[in-house]
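Comment thread on ticket #2218

A.B. wrote:
> Attaching the input chain for the structure job we discussed in standup.
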Amino acid sequence: MKSSVYWLPLIRTSLFTGLAILLVSAFGLGKSNEDPATSTSGRLLYFSPPIGATLTSIADSPFINAITIFRGPAGSSMELTGTNLGTNGTVSIGGLSASVVSGGWSATRIICTLPSGQITNLPVIVTRSDGQVSNSIQVSYNPPQIVSVTPASGPAKGGTSVTLTGSNFGSGYANVTMGGQAAPISSQTPNQLVVTSPVGPVGAQAIQVTVDGQISNGVSFTYVADSPTLTAINPTHGSTSGGTSLTLTGTNLSNGGIVTIGGTVAPITASYSDTAVIVNLPTGQGLNQEVTFVVTGQQANSLLFNYDAPVIASITPNHGSTSGGTSLTLTGTNFGTRGVVSIGGVSAPVTAYSHTLVVVSVPAGQGTNLPVVVTVSGQLSTSSVAFSYDAPSITSIAPASGPTSGGSVISLSGQSFGTSGVVTIGGVRASLTGAGWSHSRIECLLPSGQGVNLPVVVTRADGQVSNSLAFTYDAPLIASITPASGSTTGGTSLTLTGVNFGLNSANVTMGGQPAVISQQTHTQLVVTSPSGSAGPQAVVVTLNGQVSNSVNFTYVAPAGTALVKVQSLDGDNGQTTNNSINPTLQLVNAGTAAVPYAELTVRYWFTAENFAGINAFIDYAQLGTNKVKMTYVRTAKAYQGADGYVEYSFDASAGNLGANAKSGPIQSRLANQNWATFNETDDYSYRSGTAYADNDHITVYRTIAGGQPQLIWGTEPAVVASVMKFTVLSENKNTNTASNQISTYLKINNVGNVPVNYSDLTMRYWFTADGKASVNYWIDYAEMGAANLGGQFKSVTPVLTGADTYLEFSFKPSAGVFAALGSTGSIQFRAAKADWSAFTETNDYSFKASAPFAENNHITLYYKGQLVYGTEPVSSARLMAPSTENSGPLQIRLLGNPAEGNQAVVEIRNALNQRVELILADLQGHEINRQTVYQDAEVKQQRVALDGTSPGLYLLTAKTPFESMTTKLTRQ
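C.D. wrote:
> Ran it. Output below, let me know if you need it in another format.
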């Protein structure tokens, strides 16, 4: 606090002429021209009365010379110095009594306490106890001082109770302003003011206290905006195109706020109170869009608003091509600004988009009444508008005709074929080619059939059916007749070969008379001739109204009756398993007419085991050895007990076999060119016994007038199903299983009735290489010729049980044909490593201990890459139990039935991680072919070899260790 010293004249009156009066304060010496009323130095004051001024002094009245005040709040110590102050009395300051400190009164000095008070320039007067009153000097209370404000902030709307603490507030008549606005005072003490904040602008505002004209320091009070709140929005939904008037209700929704819906500003159209705001809905889309209100940096709680779901009113057009590309226009509401359009669940590319119109490009597809859906921010359109792909339409077929056997490629052109379906020709399904199916073109294989103007129809996978165009199978065409002549009495068995005979309902006429058909295929008709007139007669085939060309058959009138038969005996005396077959036979004419030997041929039917070419010998013939000839014929088909026959023919010089005459013995002999052994017990024509007896398994034929040979005695063996079957035998020549060589003899036997090309076969010997060194092999000897074989080593990845390598033998084209019932003979090979280190053969998959030749199914044989003998080694993974992931029982399905060519394709399901045996058999259950495949997928296609099988119906069985399934397979 600063002290003030006021110096008073010592004399009442005096004449001053420029005299300066020196006043010395208790705080030091000095001089000043300062006004005593305004001096703040508190050190030395002086004044120079004007010349001529008069000072008056009253010597006996109390006189105050100076006052020393420590400026501050009430209670400050104040000292008065002067003269004639007496010993007691009163001191008043502005009319209020100031208490005197005990012992603080003397004639020249009084010490008292500043009473509570306020205002400036208050008179200080001493009244002695005798009633004498001193002169008056002025003193001021210090201005108010604000130290703190509690609270320091409040809402801009005012009404906050604010406490000001500090000093010199006085006891009344104070004024408080906040931001220049009066704040009502509810409580006042010298050290505290309680006021109520008035309404004020947001931000920091100065608080000032004024007491009797004295203004305090300034302290800030911060007005804060009131936090807005949202309680409701009405309506709660609206169009994606915007424009809907929305009313937001809540509190503190003052002007200047910003409303957003889904992040987009919604223009405020009216704000009529702190509790309601009207906005214009902006464009947008989606559910649960956040509604916000922000004012002066304060954000209200959020509400949620839903844009309406899209509604499709119409689509134009409502149909289109399956190839897609049609421009489709959707009209409706609430499409938003972006969305996804699907047709039948397939996305349609958008080319134009607005709230009420969408244009898309129709995707490729097929189906009818497919739902059209617009999805906007997860909201799906609610209307049920449907789109249909156009029905398939066939415009052309090329070619429009084809063979009854089928198999030719037919191309259909048109529109809206879709991506899948069925093509039928005359109601029969046509299989697809590799070129397959497109929206405008289908390529299929003509099924076998017959007829004219048959409807060709496309049925798409969605059930829509096309128009029909006509297709006509080709008319029958006869190429040849065998034999070309026969007796006028009829009964001749004729074979007509050609094309387009169909499979049923054919009619054959010979000389206008119907011939009985006993067998019919697309390329062959077997008929029995009716009786007819001698000479050439036209043979015509009619099928479904289509008439073939005509070919002549010559009827020959018999000159007499001849009945030729064969008698035989076993010329080998019961030896059935040696290296020769010794048929001994004689012809007997039991008829009434002689027969020229030259018109006769005789066939002895047998199976040529170990076939290596047949040599035939006439050892003796009573009618002349040089007049009988033998020719071996290997048949293309397999017969019961025969894969060929030796045909006896006679030279014209042999003359005639007279009525009731015998030819006499004809002793013959057959042998393999390599003198390998036969087994006669399964030969069709073999008959045991040492005496002549009729043998109707030896057939006799007569050729008349240049025609075809006619069967006149015996019964030909029946054709049997072709069976492709092999065995592999091995003989280990190495008694030391830990030597540095593998030495094994191999042999393949064709135990089926189908010859195959050697070059189509490969054979694998599986072993472990026992090291990293490369392996070499040698074929020391092969009965079939070592030059006809080749080989190569192949590594196995991953390693299989007992094998990380196999030696694959192949056969060169020079090896020729592997005959049915034939054998390769011994193939002697060795294998050794480049570093000549030892093998451990006992853990080799194909190893067998040293022993004579025996079957070894751990050596595998392949025909055209398909396993036909043996069992391949498996990995440890394949040795695990079959997968439990199979979705159902074993299923097989033929892909293309009837099968064409030399193989069929079968689809196998639900046999994952299992070996599957595929067994092909005829309808009597006789096994034709067997192969083993491995299913490394739940659905996999496998190929079944059909080599050697003739057209007809077969049974295909798929067998796993746990179940089996059989289906019928037709080969064309």
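A.B. wrote:
> Thanks. Noting for the ticket: Residues 1-59, 877-884 have pLDDT under 50 and may be disordered.
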